Amino acid sequence: MSTWPEVVAQVQPGVGQFYVTRCEAGATGTGFLIGPDLVVTAAHVVRDASAISIAFGRTTVNATVVGKNDMADIALVKTDSPVQGHQFQLRTSEPPVATDVAALGFPLGRPFTFTRGTVSALDAKQDTGSRVLENLIQTDTAVNHGNSGGPLITQDGQVAGVVVTIEFDDNMRAEGIAYAVTAPRVAAAVKEWTSRSAPVDFKDCGNAPAPGSGFFPLTVSANHDQARNIGQTLILHGQAINQGAYAAAFKLFTPELQATFGDTAKWSADLGSSYWTKAEIINVSGTSSADDLNAEVILQTIQDAAHGRNGQTCSNWKIRYSMHWDGAAWLIAGSSLPFGEPTAC
Question: Which residues pair with 18 in a beta bridge?
Fold first, then answer.
């Protein structure tokens, strides 16, 4: 049998980090490939989404929900282009109690992690407050928010279940108790959805969404340890602008920057025709341990001439974003144009 390091090296390219924009806030989660353009995740990860992007390594793709079961907390999404990555196989039976398993994902929106444990119990139940999930795998594998939707795998690399929740007792987190939907249950749902898919409409935030899907590609060229984490903030911010989810975009500013704008309505007053079309993080300066970093970003936007610099309807910017770590995420603390005004596309 392969060792865990060998298994992770093989399957990691098939694990994606979800960037989900909702009207009031952004969220992250995990999913995994089961086909070139099909990704399994947890239903609560994509609930009320106004836009979904998934990062596989340095590649980011747009996605839509083609099947969702809130009661079972599983969902299937389809990417707008094929993804080069490992395609997981779902186990046909539940692993016995005491089987070694591991969770793969992006806890708390951080980089990819592997955590190992065992199957603690089968046919478990969990009351999430809004519903009772049944026939779950219980595991002592360490998972956190952000692991949701990721694969719980056995040492042969097959998926035993989809991570969906951790145990809470009277609002107190219980250690070493987490749950996953079983692979056979997921396989049955995927079979139904692939034969009779019913795309789920994105949530309308009531403002002016970008033409088409509003998706924009983000490339991370910078080698700094925090470059991808900063990219997570920028893609959620730009995605929110493109979907008219201005409240969600505004929350990605530091409180100090928010105060300079006044409120969401004042800040977004001139954004009705402005959309991000592509972005690349080319440099991040500062030490990895610092709470304040600078990110140099090449950004392309489209907008009405009335809102564009010098009447531009398409602009190429080179922006320096000041980023601040608030203990949980990188927030935008400011922006400047040290390299000059934007040029027309």
Answer: 29, 54
Only one residue has tokens 């530091």, namely 254
Cβ-contact 261, 267 below 8 angstroms: yes
Question: How deeply is 3 buried, as exposed, middle or buried, from its count of CB atoms within 10 A (0-12, 13-18, 19+)?
Answer: exposed
Mode of pairing for the β-strands spanning 275-285 and 218-220:
parallel
DSSP helix/strand/coil, 273: coil
Burial 216-226 (b: 16+ CB within 10 A, else e): bebebebebeb
Query: pTM (2 decimals)?
Result: 0.88
Task: Kindly tell me the burial class for residue 320, based on how many C-beta atoms sit within 10 Å of its own C-beta (0-12, 13-18, 19 or more).
Answer: middle
Query: What is the CB neighbour count within 10 angstroms for residue 287?
Result: 9
Of residues 274, 275, 285, the one with CA closest to residue 323 = 285
Largest CA distance in the chain: 66
Q: Report d(CA 340, CA 102) in Å as an integer.
A: 49
Closest to 124 measured CA to CA, from 152, 75, 165, 92: 165
Nearest Cα to Cα of residue 175 among 140, 136, 137, 126:
140
- Three-state SS string over 288-308 comes to CCCCEEEEEEEEEEECCHHHC
What is the chain's pLDDT, residue by residue, as a tens digit (345 residues)? Answer: 799 999 999 999 999 999 999 999 999 999 999 999 999 999 999 999 999 999 998 888 999 999 999 999 999 999 999 999 999 999 999 999 999 999 999 998 888 999 999 999 999 888 776 778 889 999 999 999 899 999 999 999 999 999 998 776 666 666 789 999 999 999 999 999 998 877 888 999 988 888 888 889 999 999 998 998 999 999 999 999 999 999 999 999 999 999 999 999 999 987 878 999 999 999 999 876 779 999 999 999 999 998 888 899 999 999 999 999 998 889 999 999 999 999 999
3-state secondary structure (DSSP) of residue 10: helix
b/e code 85-120 from CB counts within 10 Å (16+ = b) = bbebebbeebbeeeeebbbbbbbebbebbbbebebb
